[in-house]
């Protein structure tokens, strides 16, 4: 049995949800280890179409235990709504477990996130406004409220008071926000506590038992390598560590238990929010990717910025995550685009660089150095083996594999679970 980490190899939205759902039928446990409801993971299978934000993407598999680990930040209202939505779609959540050590996103975190972004104006990060950054700030400042605090109203109120005092002042005086209702909104969380109680567990222990019993475990990364707070395009990043190494910390399982890491990568690139994006394409070809790939955010509905595949960033993701396999998604979207480009390096002040620049200012000004390959026009959404693909598509995959220095283990040719060429199990 294997313990696998599934991680985004780009700037998020690579199709991690689809891949997790595909692998879920043989997984005993699926674990989210970071991020929060900034994530939007789309799953399409015989039971319907689901947009998941907090609940792991294997939820529609009735025999799989799905876990929200300690490293995740949880908006209990969003969690409650997601559980209700799933139940309404006939998907049972009885196998969901939530770590008591996970931190809560409080109403004042959401207000803080919005206010900070508004104040930054042109310099904004383009966050999802879900309160992710401020919640992780409080965690590091040891002012966070945890899931387990919901079960002790007295402690909960004491902690909220201590944590909110200064923030309410900042919100009122610096950001001119109305903070009147905030205390009541925090109180509403307590009202939800009893309905969440059955899900709360010592998830690190559950996981350890699963691993020791030789169960199949999948870690579900949210966001992507280039959005990692340490290894991404800081400050245009999220406030957690999506990279594979964080799975261990965010779930409470030693790194020696992890057997392999698969990176999910689109056949091109997208990014939501601000920040450097060397291979971004403006104009007709960018529009083609946007339309054909339906590149609108699952969480915020924002248009995703579109560009060619960035092999410099992909090689970096292979290195930083220790990827043992690559899953290339949305290959079908490239059909009919004409010639296909991929950046093999960057140019900066006449120099060629093959690595992600160490300095932010270089990254912002780096220009892509493209390799151009022949494209294909055929609809490939029905392909189920490599042989079903046109030669040009196979050549493109071989090129990506060689450039990335990592074997392609699966290729996705459509949003549905079945629209996959699985090369390794
Ligand atoms: P995630 O955040 O990494 O799980 O990715 P998202 O779900 O946010 O975005 C990926 C989008 O592409 C979703 O709408 C998926 O249904 C869709 N998708 C996934 N794989 C493929 C594919 O191979 N082809 C096409 N056309 N769509 C795909
Ligand atoms: P999934 O899991 C793509 C981006 C936001 C913004 C930056 C910081 O679906 O791949 P935050 O709200 O986290 O403080 O925003 O990160 N971002 C994502 N982009 N996919 C995601 O998740 C993202 N989660 C956050 O757009 O640029
Ligand atoms: Mg997404």
Describe the protein's topology.
Elements: E1 3-8, H1 16-24, E2 29-32, E3 41-45, E4 48-52, E5 65-68, E6 73-74, H2 76-88, E7 96-99, E8 103-104, H3 107-120, H4 132-140, H5 153-173, H6 182-196, E9 200-201, H7 203-212, E10 217-220, H8 246-251, E11 260-266, E12 269-271, H9 284-292, E13 305-307, E14 309-310, H10 311-321, E15 325-329, E16 340-348, E17 351-353, H11 360-365, E18 367-373, H12 391-404, E19 408-412, E20 420-422
Parallel strand pairs: 1-10, 1-11, 2-5, 2-10, 5-7, 6-8, 7-9, 11-15, 14-16, 15-19
Antiparallel strand pairs: 3-4, 12-13, 16-17, 16-18, 19-20
Helix pairs in contact: 3-4, 3-5, 5-6
The structure holds guanosine-5'-diphosphate, 6-O-phosphoryl inosine monophosphate and magnesium ion.
6-O-phosphoryl inosine monophosphate is lined by residues 8, 12-13, 38-41, 125-128, 130, 132-133, 222-224, 227, 238-239, 272-273, 298.
Rg over alpha carbons: 21 Å
Q: In this structure, how is the largest beta sheet organized?
A: 10 strands, mixed
Top CATH class of the largest domain: Alpha Beta
Number of helical segments with 4 or more residues: 12
Oligomer: single chain
Q: What is the CATH architecture annotation of the largest domain?
A: Alpha-Beta Complex
Q: What structural category characterises the helix and strand content?
A: alpha/beta
Let me know the CATH homologous superfamily of the largest domain.
Adenylosuccinate Synthetase, subunit A, domain 3
Number of strands: 20
Hetero groups bound? guanosine-5'-diphosphate, 6-O-phosphoryl inosine monophosphate, magnesium ion
CATH fold assignment of the largest domain: Adenylosuccinate Synthetase, Chain A, domain 3
Cross-sheet strand order for the largest sheet? 9-7-5-2-10-1-11-15-19-20
Instruction: Note poorly predicted spans.
Output: none
- Helix coverage percent: 25-40%
């Amino acid at each position: 049995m294997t313990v696998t980490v599934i991680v985004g190899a780009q700037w998020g939205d690579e199709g991690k949800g689809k891949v997790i759902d595909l692998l879920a039928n043989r997984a005993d446990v699926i674990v989210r280890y970071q991020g929060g409801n900034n994530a939007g993971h789309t799953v399409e299978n015989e039971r319907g179409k689901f947009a998941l934000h907090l609940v792991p993407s294997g939820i529609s598999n009735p025999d799989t235990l799905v876990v929200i680990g300690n490293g995740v930040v949880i908006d209990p209202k969003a969690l409650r709504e997601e559980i209700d939505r799933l139940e309404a779609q006939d998907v049972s959540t009885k196998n969901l477990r939530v770590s008591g050590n996970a931190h809560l996103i409080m109403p004042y975190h959401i207000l803080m996130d919005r206010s900070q972004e508004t104040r930054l104006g042109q310099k904004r990060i383009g966050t999802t406004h879900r309160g992710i950054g401020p919640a992780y700030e409080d965690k590091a400042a040891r002012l966070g409220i945890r899931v387990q605090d919901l079960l002790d109203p007295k402690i909960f109120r004491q902690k909220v008071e201590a944590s909110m005092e200064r923030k309410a002042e900042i919100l009122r005086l610096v950001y001119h926000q109305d903070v009147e209702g905030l205390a009541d909104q925090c109180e509403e969380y307590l009202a939800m506590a009893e309905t969440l109680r059955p899900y709360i567990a010592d998830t690190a222990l559950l996981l350890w038992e699963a691993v020791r019993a030789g169960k199949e475990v999948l870690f579900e990364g949210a966001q992507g390598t280039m959005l990692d707070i340490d290894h991404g395009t800081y400050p245009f990043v999220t406030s957690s560590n999506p990279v594979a190494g964080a799975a261990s910390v965010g779930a409470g399982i030693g790194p020696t238990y992890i057997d392999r890491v698969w990176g999910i990568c689109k056949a091109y690139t997208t990014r939501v929010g601000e920040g450097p994006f060397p291979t971004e394409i403006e104009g007709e070809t960018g529009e083609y990717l946007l339309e054909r790939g339906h590149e609108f955010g699952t969480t915020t509905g924002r248009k995703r910025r579109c560009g060619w595949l960035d092999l410099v960033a992909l090689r970096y993701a292979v290195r930083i995550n220790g990827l043992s396999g690559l899953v290339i998604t949305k290959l079908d979207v490239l059909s009919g685009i004409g010639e296909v480009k991929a950046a093999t390096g960057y140019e900066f002040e006449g120099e060629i660089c093959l690595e992600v620049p160490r300095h932010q200012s270089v990254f912002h000004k780096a220009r892509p150095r493209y390799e151009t390959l022949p494209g294909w026009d055929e609809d490939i959404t029905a392909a189920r083996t490599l042989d079903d693909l046109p030669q040009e598509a196979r050549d493109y995959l071989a090129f990506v594999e060689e450039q990335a220095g990592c074997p392609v283990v699966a290729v996705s040719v459509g949003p549905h679970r079945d629209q996959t060429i699985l090369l390794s199990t």
